[in-house]
Amino acid sequence: MTTVLVTGANGFVGKHLCRYLPTKGYAVRAAQRVCQPDSNLAEQVAIGDIDGTTDWSGALVGVDTVVHLAARVHVMRESEDDPLAAFRRVNVEGTAALGRQAVAAGVRRMIYLSSIKVNGEKTHGVPFSADDDAGPEDAYGISKWEAEQALRQIALETGLELVIIRPVVIYGAGVKGNLQRLMSLIRRGVPLPLGGIQNRRSFLSVGNLLDFLRCAIDHPAAAGELFLLADGEDLSTPQLIRKLSKVMGCGVKLFPMPLSLLQFAGWLTGQSPVIARLTEDLQVDIAKNRDRLDWTPVVDMDQALQEMVDVNSRR
């Protein structure tokens, strides 16, 4: 039985992955900052804070594959005086330390969940592809790109089978952040000034991410490769809102507002990044996933949105 170490096991994706992999025949070891006494995970290991000094040796004993999800994630309201240094400490130094220790422990393959932010913040009519040059624009994206480079060097020197995945925004049962806030606005019937937006954005259901991670654990052709990941169904912001309102059973009030006014409102309120995500394009090409791994999305977007809404409504 393949033993998989999942880092960041108590995060949104980590919780899903630790429940999913045992159903597919994998033994899972869940690495968390501290163990959760009320968790139903079969095996937990506490590793404390993540940086270049973290000792992973105990967690790596007998592990075949590492799925590295743990990271200092992108935040809307940064509190650090030097955000890039804070991101590098966890995302670059911590990841490189894990990679080196994984090799020393005899780990065969490491799967690194990076971010589409390594490619950039938006597209201009042509989707990002796995062959594109990197173009990170913020501290988080830069740190994920540098972590990829550190792992590539380790793999080059040691033969570690490295798989890098850059997902777009992930949604699903238990999601928080902007999608949770959007659902709240729809549920309360708040009029939304986004009716005139004609952007195109890619999304990724957690179900499709889980299935792709399962494929990446074992597929021989995944080793040494980089993949961009999405559902394969791109939507405008108004289309997403209408889909959500339909599965929520709520009416939605959309009206058009000039883009310049939306951007000005974002500037006034300090929400320019949010406005950008709601109005700009960000699309990815996932043809490589089919061509190289014979993988196509297994979860329909409407189904995934329904599951997300159902779980959210019970909270």
TrEMBL record:
Residues 4-223 form the NAD-dependent epimerase/dehydratase domain. Coiled coil: none annotated. InterPro entries: Epimerase_deHydtase (IPR001509), NAD(P)-bd_dom_sf (IPR036291). Gene3D superfamilies: NAD(P)-binding Rossmann-like Domain. It holds the Pfam family Epimerase. Pathway: Bacterial outer membrane biogenesis; LPS O-antigen biosynthesis. PANTHER family: DTDP-D-GLUCOSE 4,6-DEHYDRATASE-RELATED. Belongs to the NAD(P)-dependent epimerase/dehydratase family. This is SDR family oxidoreductase. It comes from Candidatus Thiodiazotropha taylori.
